Amino acid sequence: MSTSTDPATHTLVCALDRIEVEGGVVALVDGAAVAIFRTHDGNVYAMSNYDPCSRASVLARGIVGTRGEIPYVASPMHKQAFDLRTGQCLDDAAVRVPTYDVRVADGMVLVGGPRET
């Protein structure tokens, strides 16, 4: 999660309780489709909703889980797994999905801009 405290740099997405545990939602943030996920341990992550392997905007509908200590989402199309923290594909080192700053304030999820890779 981002530690930024400036709400002007973040887009209000929804209340945290609107995101199911181990589920995802999608929101437009500055014109980009961003998938926001809530994991079983209460962490919230944001990444592009675009799956580069299937070339479809579907990641918010993927399966959330863990591989060892790595939280990931598996694409609903071809099942490639993407690290929720970094966007790195766990099945193909050449593939990465952009991630976004995200934070929760007063029970509301806010998404900022893309993170540097």
Note down, in words, how this protein is organized.
- This protein has 117 residues and is mainly β.
- The chain has no helices and eleven strands.
- The strands form three sheets. The protein has a six-stranded antiparallel β-sheet, with no helix packed on it. It has a three-stranded antiparallel β-sheet with strand order 7-8-9, with no helix packed on it. The protein has a two-stranded antiparallel sheet with strand order 5-6.
- A hairpin with a 2-residue loop joins strand 2 and strand 3 (32-38).
- The protein is globular and about 35 Å long.
The largest β sheet comes out as: 6 strands, antiparallel
Low-confidence sequence ranges:
1-5
User: Helix-strand pattern, N to C?
Assistant: EEEEEEEEEEE
Termini distance?
A: 15 Å
Biggest β-sheet: strands ordered side by side in the sheet: 1-11-10-4-3-2
The beta-strand count equals 11
Rg calculated over all Cα atoms: 13 Å
- Global structural class: mainly beta
Shape: globular
β-sheet strand percentage: over 45%
Helix content: under 10%
Question: What is the residue-averaged pLDDT?
Answer: 93
In DSSP terms, counting alpha (H) and pi (I) runs of 4 or more, how many helices?
0
